Amino acid sequence: MKIAIIDYGIGNVRSILEAFKNQNSDVILTKDKDEILKSSGLVIPGVGSFSHGMENLINYGLDGVIKEYAIMDKPLLGICLGMQLLFEESSEFGFTNGLGLISGKVNELPTKDNQYEKLPHVSWNEINSKKISWNNTILEDIDEGSDMYFVHSFAAEPNDPDEILSLTEYSKHNFCSCVKRGNIYGCQFHPEKSGLIGLKIISNFISICYR
Amino acid sequence: MNKIRVIARIDVKNEFAIKGIHLEGLRKIGNPNILACNYYKDGIDEIFFMDAVAAYYDRNSLTELIQKSCRNVFIPITVGGGIRSIDDIKNLLKSGADKVAINTKAVRNPDFILQSSKTFGSQCIVSSIEAKFIKDGKWEVYIDNGRESTGTDVVEWAKYVEELGAGEIMLTSIDKEGTKKGFDIELYKEVVNKVSIPIIASGGMGKSTDAVNLLKDADIDAIASASVLHYKIESIKEIKQTLFENNIRVRI
Fold it and tell me: Which of A98, A186, B95, B120 is disulfide-compatible with A179, CB 3.0–4.6 A?
């Protein structure tokens, strides 16, 4: 009953590891195919550029492993860049293909031409717009309007609006801050860096994994 | 809509949190890890650890502290001081830091900002700039924790670090640092319109209304506070309440 955090040489994974430990889960950091496939829950962390992230996944042979894992319909959580990688492609530094587990694209937040607000979006910001119920999802018992910590310049645009779990407003534009497709979840914010509410979201994910 | 971040700045010398005036005359405050945990519990938005003597010794010694802190502090942690190489950054991120702040090395070799932001992403590279007032709308960049002047103009340097890929700027006023007499509002007004990346104002906050006065005049993204918190002049709740009452969006 282990939860595996994918170790693909990207960013700060220690805080994710500590957050899962803090919520009493049996968690490991791994790039081992068998360990990943037999885990009860999988986390794809990640900061930095989309192409660099995808390149590392491919170099470690993990892209295929994640797809194989997802087919089993076990819980998966992508955080920040890890969420973006779940989609089909990104326009960051030209075009790069993603894992394609969720239909949609990743594009830069529309601020550069408008100059409403700054990029990167580094801030606490609210998650809103509860069109679909948050019950039995990673956002269960989270209040609408809760502040989460964001640090990014790109955001995913799911093709299916019913897969958007929450929206966040930035620069007069609503972007998808949390996505759900079956048992696959993605959050653009960092739950491991969003205080007690973030820890609650991690605890919800753990419950889903152990269900 | 963005919320203004309230950041606790903890300067560290050896194993102690310290506080000086104009970055000098250091006084021991307490255990930096315990301070960070307490500020986290009280609702601070981010922790900034600065190794106050690292630049002098050419190394950052905060890895152990970061490892300890990230077990209990689940908000962003930035680390600065004495960062000299890609490996230094790798070590700090691996220890649990989310962002690193670079000053001296970047001034001596601007390419370092470019290299590090390419390697780790702009989002984790903070350009730390120490500014000293010269005359009429001019500030000069200092390095080595305010010890050495460089002759470089602050506004020009800020524009340049953005171009090189820095994701944020931590702008410290040496003149105001530790004085508790309020921020150098003119400095921030001057810089904030010249760059489009987030700016953290540091140095001079003695009470929450100092932050209100700054934010009324300058489009700053975050304020760093040390004295107010260390000397318990106001609680984090009180600071945020004052900001909120003055129509400044904060995370409550």
Answer: A186
Using CB atoms, which residue from A18, A119, A149 is nearest to B71? A18
Nearest-angstrom CA–CA distance, A79 and A77: 6
Q: What percent of chain A has pLDDT over 90?
A: 81
- On the question of a cis peptide bond just before residue B76, with omega within 30 degrees of 0, the verdict is no
Return the SS3 of A82: helix
Q: Please give the residue of chain B at the shortest CA–CA distance from A191.
A: B74
Distance CA(A203)–CA(B15), nearest Å, equals 33
pLDDT at residue B2 is higher than 90? no
Q: d(Cα A104, Cα A81) in Å, to the nearest integer?
A: 15
Residue with tokens 């502090």: B73
- pLDDT interval class at A113 (50, 70, 90): low
User: Cα distance from B5 to chain A (closest Cα, Å)?
Assistant: 7
pTM for the full model?
0.94
Residue of B nearest to A197 (CA): B74
Is B186 an annotated catalytic residue?
no
Which pLDDT score, from 0 to 100, does residue A119 have? Answer: 82
Report whether pLDDT(B55) > 80: no
**Residue B245: partners with Cβ closer than 8 Å, 6 or more residues away:** none
**pLDDT at site B119:** 85
Q: Compute φ and ψ for A82, nearest 5 degrees.
A: -60, -35
Q: What is the arithmetic mean of pLDDT over B64-68?
A: 94
